[in-house]
Write the C-alpha cells for this entry.
Amino acid sequence: MLKNSEFVSKLRNSGLRPTKQRLKICEVLFNRDKTFHFTINDLAKNIAENFNEKISLATIYNTVHAFKDKGYLKEITISSDKSYFDTNITKHHHFYDEDTNLLIDCNDNEIGKVNIKNNITGKKISSVEVLVRVASDTQNQD
Amino acid sequence: MLKNSEFVSKLRNSGLRPTKQRLKICEVLFNRDKTFHFTINDLAKNIAENFNEKISLATIYNTVHAFKDKGYLKEITISSDKSYFDTNITKHHHFYDEDTNLLIDCNDNEIGKVNIKNNITGKKISSVEVLVRVASDTQNQD
DNA sequence: AATTTATATTATAATCATTCTAAACTGTTG
DNA sequence: CAACAGTTTAGAATGATTATAATATAAATT
Ligand SMILES: [Mn+2]
Ligand SMILES: [Mn+2]
Ligand SMILES: [Zn+2]
Ligand SMILES: [Zn+2]
C-alpha cells in the first residue's frame, strides 16, 4: 500500500521519470495489500476498464519491461505461449494450476529448500525456481 | 541408438503413420547415444543442412508437437522468447547457462529431491521442475 | 493390384504478440 | 522560460507459430 509520492521517489531513484502513465501503472501494480501475478494483456485490460485516460499498449510493454529491469517485477515463464509477471520479487516458488491457468505462490511451508549439491564449474547461481504443475484430481472431468 | 524399423513400430503404436518425414525427424532426434535439447529452429536448420530432401517447416512444427503430445519429447520453457524441446523424457531438472543459452540436465547428485510438503487441495501434481539459472562468475566480463 | 478412405505434407497466407519508428509531448534543469 | 533528454503514442514492421486447402501418401478395402 504505497502512495503516489512514494512511487515518485521510487521511479526517480531508479532513473525513471515519474510520468503519469508510469504512476498509474505503479498504482495498479503496487498499491495493494497482496502481491499478484499478471500478464501484459491482463494489465492492459485492467487499465482500460478502470481508468478514463488510456495508456498506449507500447507504453505498457515499455513500462513493464523497465520495471522488470529495475527489479520491481519478476517474469515467470510457464509455457511458450504465456508469460506472467509477478509483483512478488522475493525468492519463491510456484504452483501452476493447469485447469485455471492460475499461478499460486508457494510458501516455505509448502516447498522445502532445494538442495543444489553441485553447480556448473565457474558459474554463479543467479536463481533457483521450482514450478509445480497441478491439475484436477479426476481423470475425466466434463 | 534405435533403428528405422523400431521407429516405424514406435510411430504405428502411437497412431502416427510412419511417413518418411517423421522417420527422418526420428532419426535426427532419437538415433543418438545421448539425449539433447533443441529449438524448432535448431531442428529445421539441422535437417536443412544434413539431408537432401527438405521437410517443410509446417511439418517440422506438426511433428514436434505430435511427438510432444505422444510423450516422446518434453517442452522446456526458459523465457518468453525461447522454447526448448528435450529428448530426455525422464523426470529431471535443468541448469540454464545465461551466457551461452544452453540447457544442461541435472543428475540426482546435483539437485536433491524437492520436498513438497503441502499441495493445493483437490489437485494432483503433474510435474515438478527446477530451473537453476547460472551465469559467469565474474561481474564485468568482456 | 486397383480403389477408396483417412492422414499427412506442403507452399503460402493469416494471425497475433511483441517490438520498432519517428513524430509529438512532457519532465527536468538551469 | 528555454533547451534538452526522456517518454508516449499510433501505427507499421517483425517474426514465430498456426491455419488453409490443394496435393500427395499410407492404409484399408474391394
Ligand atoms: Mn508449442
Ligand atoms: Mn519480455
Ligand atoms: Zn509469485
Ligand atoms: Zn533435459
Chain A has two domains: 4-79, 91-142. Strands of chain A lie at 37-38, 74-79, 82-86, 94-97, 102-105, 123-136. The longest strand of chain A covers residues 123-136.
